Amino acid sequence: MLRQSRRETLALATISECSSSGSSVTVLSNVPKVHIFPWTFQELNYHTLGNMDHKCSICKAKMWLDERKSNSSIKSPVFMTCCANSKVLLPPLQELPPFLNVLLTRTNTQSHLFHQNIRLYNSALAFTSIGAKIDHSVTSTRSIYTFRIYGEMYHNIGTLLPDHESCP
């Protein structure tokens, strides 16, 4: 159980109403500190990873500079999380099915609408669950996390549309 002072710091900000030239404006005061864990009392400072403008010299994957191996230099960074220094080799990409190729590369009305709504499609399909038998022999390495399954894989998703006469 958190002590009283900790609960107070996690409380919502005090909201007061102001009126300026007939319009109502909400002002937040006494905004609490942001906490990583309940037992810490330090403020979180803004942090950015910068641009993803570095490339692995082996597999050419785009990387952030902070993802480099800790003992590599800034001028010639070595990255391990992409190809584990050429220990992991990916086969060339297969050609896309024609329907996807049209959506992703051509400039027609259907392609334009797809690009406008691609985040919505991703969000709608993101909350799915899978069922599979996991091969744990490859998950205990110190390199890239590998998720390998065997047998059948089940992809469970609910309906994308609400029931008849129901609110979404």
UniProtKB/TrEMBL annotation:
Domain of life the protein comes from: Eukaryota
Protein name: 9279_t:CDS:1
The organism of origin for this protein: Cetraspora pellucida
